[in-house]
Write a sequence for this structure.
């Protein structure tokens, strides 16, 4: 129950059921875990390296 002195909004359990069910369905469809920060960093560096090489290869002619 919300505290009237704090003038806050607190969600009811009933109103969250639909949201929780949707989130559970979405999460159950995810087969693999999300990539780690290190994996993302490695991928970004790989793409940047390829892009840099591609840009600078044309400038050497």
């Amino acid at each position: 129950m919300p505290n009237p002195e704090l003038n806050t909004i607190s969600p009811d359990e009933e109103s969250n059921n639909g949201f929780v069910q949707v989130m559970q369905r979405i999460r159950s469809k995810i087969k693999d875990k999300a990539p780690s920060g290190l994996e993302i960093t490695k991928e970004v560096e790989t793409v940047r390296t390829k892009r840099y090489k591609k840009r600078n290869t044309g400038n050497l002619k």
